[in-house]
Predict the structure.
Amino acid sequence: MLDVRQDFPAIAAGAGHFLDSAASALKPRAVLEAMNQFAGTVYANVHRGAYRLSTTSTELYEKARSRAAEFIGASNPDEVVLCRGTTTGLNMVAAGWGGEHLRPGDRILLTVMEHHANIVPWQMVARRTGAVLDYVGITEDGHLDRDGFVRKLDLQPRVVAFTGMSNVLGSIPPAAALAEAARATGALVVVDGAQLVPHRPVDVQSIGADFLAFSGHKLLGPTGIGVLWGRPERLEEMEPTEGGGEMIANVELDHSTWARIPHRFEAGTPPIIEAVGLTAAFDYLDEIGMESVAAHDAELTNYALKRLSEVEQLRIQGPLTGEDRGGAISFTLGDVHPHDLATILDQRQVSVRAGHHCAKPLMRVLGMPATARASISVYTNNEDIDALISGLEEASGLFGI
Amino acid sequence: MLDVRQDFPAIAAGAGHFLDSAASALKPRAVLEAMNQFAGTVYANVHRGAYRLSTTSTELYEKARSRAAEFIGASNPDEVVLCRGTTTGLNMVAAGWGGEHLRPGDRILLTVMEHHANIVPWQMVARRTGAVLDYVGITEDGHLDRDGFVRKLDLQPRVVAFTGMSNVLGSIPPAAALAEAARATGALVVVDGAQLVPHRPVDVQSIGADFLAFSGHKLLGPTGIGVLWGRPERLEEMEPTEGGGEMIANVELDHSTWARIPHRFEAGTPPIIEAVGLTAAFDYLDEIGMESVAAHDAELTNYALKRLSEVEQLRIQGPLTGEDRGGAISFTLGDVHPHDLATILDQRQVSVRAGHHCAKPLMRVLGMPATARASISVYTNNEDIDALISGLEEASGLFGI
Amino acid sequence: MALEELYREVILDHYRNPRNRTALEEPHAAAEGVNPLCGDEVTVELTFGGDVVAGVSVRGHGCSISQSSGSMMGEAIKGLDREAISVLSRRFQESLTSEDSNSESEFGELAALQGVRRYPVRVKCALLPWTTLDEALSA
Amino acid sequence: MALEELYREVILDHYRNPRNRTALEEPHAAAEGVNPLCGDEVTVELTFGGDVVAGVSVRGHGCSISQSSGSMMGEAIKGLDREAISVLSRRFQESLTSEDSNSESEFGELAALQGVRRYPVRVKCALLPWTTLDEALSA
Ligand SMILES: Cc1ncc(COP(=O)(O)O)c(C=O)c1O
Ligand SMILES: Cc1ncc(COP(=O)(O)O)c(C=O)c1O
């Protein structure tokens, strides 16, 4: 198990048993210091100045792009678009690629366990283009229904978009196998990496998708920045969704031409300070090693699943064993409403999320409007899980169950 | 004149004579500390958790919204959309309002002195809707051509969008008068406040536009965050341009409904740490007082204009007097190319920007592909201007002019 | 910890056995309320005999606080006239949101919800049925 | 400060009096290069007699470095064959970008541009005509 709690100032400051890392992770000191240090010394706008400060800023900004490429095994920094986060990345693909290439009747295949960020953008572009949405279901034990997936592929979807790891169930679909099958039918393959990339080593070459999006803030990095990786030929096919400075080659009064990829997708002043923080987050995770992160995640997930399964009337939503699942664990306790659980746990400094987790369609499939969710990161340890269990026991007592 | 240099760590760290504040401003210690402190203590995702950390984060995030409203005199925080910056704000209006309401042949009236951020989004929506672009010119002395503006209004544009202050010429169009005339003809009025809001007291009630966008990073605040203010009835008419978490009321498999304004325009995890920094920037500027900021700006601009006008073969682009102009001063020196100027000045720690300043159409009107630009902020002083002048004299010597 | 103060017996009872759940055939006034942040929902339906509430239905789903608050509200407003309801609604909402809480006594069973005052996030759960009621009455 | 090293006489001369500005009627090879960050532009056109450059046109606008580099390049490649040009281009580009610069001597007048090595941002100004030339030759 990792022992890195001392790297996280928020823990010393009293963040307590923070079990909502799937919503957003705490930041290590290295990330905060990198941003603070940069913003207080050589900060200037990027890509714009011939003077020293600006070129230094530009180099640091571009460094984030190449570190991102390296982190996910992309062969070329030009395949990386720095954007606001997963949500923006997926919207760029849906509107910018889908808006250009989808035709009436084209099918967009999603899964019922997607986060709203991987549903709503597709609904928006479907409305605009006349494409139609289709969904793959899940199995009893909370995994993607692979047989269903294969059957749906027979309908020749033009786009197949799925999550690398469910933020509710924790289940990890076999992205490489799904991508291969989907690409074989000619579909564009989009992977929502928001939960996967922070917790597992990810290599875009071996996944073989067309696009992968993820967020800095779930990866121990800053808010306001994220990554959209795309195959260069797909990026070339994508229209920019925002116009403005830096993304143009030329602007005439009545029309403009775009800069080369990836710059054409980065209109306006980008998140510069955030880019420096993102680089620091990649460095920090690589220092630990993503294999070790994954091992820590697996060990702790197994411990949590075991302890939770011992609590009476507690029901876990999602896989009950540590295989093919990550450390986002949703559950309910008897008839205690998840918000009541969250309040009770909060009194013991245990932070869990309660609600629909931005996955309303999935909650409908599960037949419940809300669950409580505990989720882990590199700084989470057994004591956090133990505190969760004690809190749940108190809740049982208060509610007389 | 203000004396606040000690508040800016980058100056002590050797930023030198930083005269590129119009591209992005340096950050006061208060902003950096607020972000660092927040991110290292009570940080958590917003709008999502019933636990203490998350509600504290949410309150701080919403605080930025109400401070923004206060800063620009908006009557209600719900009129404020927190977005990535001016570019995103203007794209949201163009695609989200224009995309819904523009019809083939509708006219969009811009000015030739717009930044690309207030041109390209309109070109994109014009292409999509069949609307047509029209432009108001400038006068000899670098001001907006008001007579031309009035004539163009006769053509009943559906949208009138103009900058509150030119980032190249420094000129400040009479926004309130223009907005009143444009609204009287029934046009939607959009003001690009990127340069105006950091340098003048701005009151949206008295300007009377429909939308105003500005960026945090030009306002002594962080990158990655900005503000789109809109009249509530106009925000209601605007479609969200991004879909995802937090912006929905409900998500079904085949369609979704939107949350109320302004939340429907804030899909996904927003720039949370940045919001805390933005609040600190508003606080810092209010502490100085925007009237004092404007006075400092005016005094220093006059000093710079006077000193520059004494340099031989130096030609200023834009108004030559301090009236109705702010402290962004573009110029050329003989036949020395602006990039050469920037390099020469950089050797003396004088940072100026050289190029087209994301205003290619304007550069074409001025008949030059590039200018050098010096621009000021609260921390700029006479010595910075003096250093600029000495550097220019050295350039004259090197180039033998 | 004052969690026992929050989750009082009477609250859990109303949560588990909510009163007045049957939908009304032809309500004279109705509204639906949602707390967009947590997803809690409440539907309020009323019929009147003259100015006085004759029939009440309060349905919904969500946490013990919002649901018990709705159930207790239904009981509390039965037989009151519009004027009395709006006074009660205003005073009850104030009792949860204003600095100084007094007069628990005037609220009867509803007073059990005063424990929520120490949990600011949960106050809006307790208020949801009442703001929905206000909406039904003003429509 | 080594600004005098950067802005040598010969550079300013080529900047102000650029050689070979006349467009060619029917070029055998041509390319346009732009530095998107600063907007500098260079157009290169060539005609060949057999394998040897017969006519050269280098036009554009931008800073003294990119424009003088283009002007000197035009002079330098006249009369060279394709092979010699590509060697020169590679060696010249290397001389500006590699760690150790040597052999100023082999470049003749072009050596005046070595001063740019101390200004990393400006190196790409000096390279622009050459990368555009490479493009023209490989097209
Ligand atoms: C007048 C004007 N409008 C818009 C912008 C774009 O702002 P941002 O890059 O922060 O989106 C700028 C700054 O570059 C500007 O000066
Ligand atoms: C699976 C998944 N996809 C997408 C998102 C959206 O990420 P963000 O809010 O950073 O844009 C999240 C996080 O909320 C997520 O868990």
